[in-house]
Specification:
heterodimer, A: alpha/beta, Glutaredoxin, Rossmann fold, Ubiquitin-like (UB roll), five-stranded mixed β-sheet, four-stranded mixed β-sheet, B: 7 helices, about 10% strand, binds flavin mononucleotide, binds FE2/S2 (inorganic) cluster
Chain lengths: ~550, ~160
């Protein structure tokens, strides 16, 4: 049973205890129990538990159920420390051997090791996938047990909100976040500190904080990983935001397709409440804040902030024109601040180490790091965090291990249905919000899907248009009809029945849909078409001739 | 599965749990009702409307807006085959087709024995193991048509036991 923390000193005392627990002299077996469940992680975990029990090794070995360890392509993955080996494709059958060789005797089992360019790399720290990343937001993900608040606290968890409550004013916090240069990770890249300031200054006593965990972009799983692997970081980010803005109540809107994320959040919230890190008079400071989870019901457009607000209010999730912006009139007409999961997970580290330290990574237009969800035709699919300004080549080839088989890289799809396809000629572009826009894609939330020479770009354009057409809420005509007509034309071209004028027609419809649609869904729906026309016109021509 | 006699007690219990602010809890009430019945029977919707004072038209509007809600009975297990981008480029169509073949249903349809409902979903955040599907709340990755078929087979055996 966790004991309520009544002051800052209580938190510090608890941290000392938690640190000591972590330092105990045991071999640690870190098992991913989130993403890897799709390939049998639970069974592997069960077998480890059983074997350790049977062999009476429980005092020497500790199993830690972690969130995503990143190299998901090798699922199910485990890390054993010491000696610091990383194993992939672990099966139930091999667990006894892992225990007798690696856990007990520090010996490496070759066939479970990561291999690159024909070379076996047993230790996690030597694997380029890991050594070339910079884990700031994901510093706890894959290392701590997300369902154990003690492990978060041991790693300076909840120190930021304590610092905010006892040493800073809300204005100080807003200035620190502004100075950090943090921009929203949900897609639009709006400066977070400025957004908070609008909401702080908005008139009204009741204000709300919303965490947008709808993550609807197909191909994106960063937010899922953060919620599952380090839910307290998001809760702490919300606490700091609430303190800065002057809000007493927050909501986390999570999509229903993320049952593990919802479960971890529920447990994290319950533990935080027990410790008096949520609720009334947090840490004895007089500050009150509590959180509620709202489950989505399957509608992509509900990721858009005004639609999301309508959905929390129990209505059809349809966007409305802005202004008024949520900062002035949001949930139930009250000033509301809405941020993405990853944005909020950046906050604790900014407050903890200060904005100067935060800015050591990144570019002028995009400070800090960005998490990318690497998927598609790339060897090391998984979760990648790199400083802003890293090039696509570094992400896809150095970290991602390149394209499997003998095929060639063709394009990287960035930003999902609102984004575009970046071709090989831009592989060396340092990515930040502006540079990606210049080449016809968007940073988006961080989904990065690699396509190889087998992928037809016209088919991809059609695929995305089909998605937007399905997900268009139907409220405004340009989006509802525009996506339908563009889809028809693309289907025609893709089926080999295109006409010469179709390309011009597509461009014109794209222009109207972009300029006349009500919300971001319609405004950006033409992007995949336009970017494929821009870079892969030859594929259209081939189908049309 | 009788469609005529719907027990309304579950709806009443669910609504009484929410207390005040039922307006904004409509989606949660519907979600829990669907969990209880497997779908949203008309009788239940009417009862929700009566107890919450939310007009039935508005409830119906919400139910039809979100893809999660079903107005007709669904299978015991929901199979959600991902058709997101990563799965799409890695052959999700084969998996989807195989599911249609072995279950002999189309998208959104339920098998006659009410064991399975086949759905597609645009991404379930498991793109790193594409192509993937979910059965109820479990994820399955790196599928091939045959692997997917084996998994479903196991579920049917389990339910027949
Ligand atoms: C159609 C559409 C879908 C969106 N989906 C999401 C989403 O899934 N997650 C998200 O954080 N933001 C999404 N956004 C962006 C939000 O409207 C909003 O800008 C964001 O949550 C703000 O948070 P940030 O400033 O921290 O980025 C979407 C926008 C549009 C137009
Ligand atoms: S695209 Fe299928 S899980 Fe994301």
């Amino acid at each position: 049973m966790l004991k309520s923390l009544k002051s800052y000193d209580d938190l510090v005392a608890m941290r000392t205890l938690c640190e000591e627990k972590l330092k105990l002299d045991k071999v640690k077996v870190y098992i991913c129990m989130t993403g890897c469940r799709a390939l049998g992680a639970e069974e592997v975990y069960g077998e480890f538990k059983r074997q350790l029990d049977e062999q009476n090794l429980k005092d020497k070995v500790e199993i830690i159920e972690t969130g995503c360890q990143g190299l998901c392509a090798r699922a199910p993955v485990i890390t054993i420390d010491p000696p610091g080996v990383f194993y992939g494709r672990v099966t139930v059958d091999i667990v006894p051997e892992i225990i007798s060789s690696t856990v007990v005797n520090d010996q490496v089992i070759n066939k479970l090791c990561y291999v690159e360019a024909g070379k076996r790399i047993p230790y996690l720290k030597d694997i380029p996938f890991y050594s070339k990343q910079k884990k700031v937001v994901l510093r706890n993900c894959g290392i701590i047990d997300p369902n154990n608040i003690e492990q978060y606290i041991a790693r300076k968890g909840y120190e930021s909100i304590a610092k905010a409550l006892f040493s800073f004013t809300p204005e100080d916090i807003i200035n620190e976040v502004k100075d950090s240069g943090l921009r929203g990770r949900g897609g639009a890249g709006f400066p977070t500190g400025t957004k908070w300031e609008f909401c702080r200054k908005a008139k009204g006593d009741t204000k709300y904080i919303i965490c947008n965990a709808d993550e609807g972009d197909p191909g994106a799983f960063m937010d899922r990983a953060v919620l599952e692997g380090d839910p307290h970081a998001v809760i702490e980010g919300m606490l700091v935001a609430a303190f800065a803005i002057g809000s007493g109540k927050g909501f986390i809107y999570v999509r229903a397709e993320y049952p593990i994320a919802i479960n971890h959040l529920e447990r994290a919230i319950a533990q935080a409440r027990q410790l008096n890190l949520l609720g009334d008079n947090i840490l004895g400071s007089g500050f009150n804040f509590d959180l509620e989870i709202k489950k989505g019901a399957g509608a992509f457009v509900c990721g858009e902030e005004t639609a999301l607000i309508a959905s929390i209010e129990g209505k059809r999730g349809m966007p409305r024109p802005r202004p008024p912006f949520p900062a002035n009139s949001g949930l139930w007409g009250k000033p509301t601040n809405i941020n993405n999961v990853e944005t909020l997970a950046n906050i604790p580290i900014i407050i903890l180490n200060g904005s100067e330290s935060y800015k050591q990574y990144g570019t002028k237009n995009g400070t800090g790091t960005k998490i990318f969800a690497l998927a598609g035709k790339v060897k090391n699919t998984g979760l990648v965090e790199v400083p802003m300004g890293t090039t696509l080549r570094e992400i896809i080839f150095d970290i991602g291990g390149g394209i499997p088989g003998r095929r060639q890289f063709k394009a990287a799809q960035m930003g999902g249905p609102s984004g575009g396809c970046v071709p090989a000629e831009h592989l060396d572009l340092p990515i930040d919000y502006e540079t990606v826009k210049e080449v016809g894609a968007i940073m988006g939330s961080g989904g990065l899907i690699v396509m190889d020479s087998d992928t037809s770009m016209v088919e991809i354009a059609k695929y995305f248009m089909g998605f937007c057409h399905d997900e268009s809420c139907g409220k405004c005509v340009p989006c509802r009809i525009g996506t339908k007509r563009m889809l028809e034309t693309l289907t025609k071209i893709n089926g080999g029945n295109g006409l010469k004028d179709d390309i011009e027609d597509l461009k014109e419809m794209a222009y109207v849909t972009q300029t006349a649609s009500l919300c971001g869904l319609g405004q950006t729906a033409p992007n995949p078409v336009l970017s494929t026309i821009r870079y892969f016109m030859n594929e259209y021509e081939e189908l049309i001739k | 599965m009788s469609k005529l006699n719907v027990d309304i007690k579950p709806v009443r219990d669910i609504i009484s749990k929410f207390g005040d602010g039922q307006d904004s809890n409509l989606i949660a009430i519907l979600q829990q009702s669907q969990d209880a019945y497997g779908y949203l029977p008309k009788t239940a919707l009417k009862e929700i409307s009566r107890l919450t004072d939310i007009p039935l038209t508005r409830i119906f509007g919400v139910v039809t807006f979100y893809s999660q809600f079903a107005l007709i009975p669904r299978g015991k297990h929901a199979i959600k085959v991902c058709s997101g981008t990563a799965c799409h480029v890695k052959g999700a169509d084969d998996v989807k087709q195989k599911m249609k073949d072995i279950l002999n249903v189309g998208e959104g349809e339920t098998t006659p024995d009410y064991q399975f409902t086949l759905e597609t979903v645009a991404c379930i955040g498991t793109c790193f193991l594409a192509p993937v599907m979910m059965i109820d709340e479990r994820y399955f990755g790196k599928l091939t048509a045959d692997k997917a078929s084996d998994i479903v087979q196991k579920y049917s055996e389990k339910t027949q036991e």
